[in-house]
Amino acid sequence: MNITSLQSHILKGEELSPGSTGDFTWILSAISLAAKAIAAKVRMARIEDVLGDHGGSNVHGETQQKLDVIANDILMTCLGNRPSVAVVASEEDDQPTILRRDSEGGKYCVVFDPLDGSSNLDVSVGVGTIFSILRNDPSIHGAVETLCQTGRKQVAAGYVLYGSSTVFVLTTGRGVDMFVLDSTIGSFVLVKSQLQVPTTGKTYSVNEAYRDTFPDGFRRYLDWAHQNGYSSRYIGSMVADVHRTLLKGGVFLYPPTKKNPEGKLRLMYEANPMAMIMEQAGGKALTASTTPVSSIMDIKPTAIHQRTSVILGSADEVDAVTRHLKQ
Ligand code: AFP
């Protein structure tokens, strides 16, 4: 039996990059270590009594779950120990954290949502960690300015789904690979290399309760989908919804709504990493927050916690949505 661990897979990738120093590998290994620790916490949450509200709210005014805070601390600790990380930013923290100044090195920045979908935790629904790795440009001053790069500049992106199994999906810009945590050996094991999203899939994933507040084009698309034999699946955890879309095909949508006219999802640590994964898997990832719609990864961020609308998934299904937006 040929077992490839995440670690050995990354090291193999490093061999393909001449002059590589291993710094990047260390960062991915920190994220993998954090993911194992978070997975263990999620599994034990009810027993260890760490479910429920933390008592505070994050920068978005959302109630923080105890596990949001725990997952954030785990990632901060694991990444903080890596000398190649200059700046980190998290959904849970108002401001980015500068770990190392210019003279102290630090080639990379990491932005992440430590525990996405955490309002689903109490009912044991899948939740996830989403991350994006960017280069640090020491000539740019200020953590926010350093981080506000388009998604096209991501060096790597990925997510970890804490579901019925713990799945690590990663792209370093050379396709998408999927690993599953084998808890008997404590390693993420490669289960699928060069993952491709099916070109079509008659499933749409959206919170249809907000339909009346979607722009007309999205309502037209939903009418069309209803008339054309589509099925609906919506978990309310982006990682779980995107993972299903990646494996089975279809489209995941978070349109502008009356409550969130720019869309609800965060550009830098939700939309951009998922967009990179989708595009690397042969799918599409667009935003309707621009006119006309454009690629999520072409948006130039102006703030760390900026929001965007999202249309991503199978190429043909994303096209079917945008056809209805144009009418
Ligand atoms: P929580 O982390 O607060 O549960 O939010 C999850 C999320 O950001 C994303 O994972 C979901 O796709 C989206 O919100 C669900 O939003 P709605 O509840 O508005 O459908």
Please explain how this structure is put together.
By secondary structure, the chain is of the alpha+beta class. The chain is 31% helix and 25% strand. It is built from eight helices and 18 strands. The chain has helices at 6-15, 23-44, 66-80, 143-147, 216-227, 238-248, 267-280, 315-326, and strands at residues 53-57, 63-65, 85-90, 97-98, 108-116, 127-135, 156-162, 166-171, 176-182, 187-192, 203-205, 231-232, 251-254, 265-266, 284-287, 294-295, 307-308, 310-313. The strands form four sheets. An eight-stranded mixed beta sheet has the order 4-3-5-6-7-8-9-10, sandwiched between helices. The chain is globular, with a radius of gyration of 19 Å. The model has no long low-confidence stretch (mean pLDDT 92). The structure holds 1,6-di-O-phosphono-alpha-D-fructofuranose (AFP). 1,6-di-O-phosphono-alpha-D-fructofuranose (AFP) is lined by residues 62, 116-120, 207, 236-238, 241, 264-265.
- Molecules bound to protein: 1,6-di-O-phosphono-alpha-D-fructofuranose
Number of helices, where a helix is a run of at least 4 consecutive DSSP H or I residues: 8
User: Overall mean pLDDT score?
Assistant: 92
Report strand order across the widest sheet: 4-3-5-6-7-8-9-10
Radius of gyration: 19 Å
The residue fraction in helices comes out at 25-40%
The 3D shape can be described as globular
The succession of helices and strands, N to C, reads HHEEHEEEEHEEEEEHEHEEHEEEEH
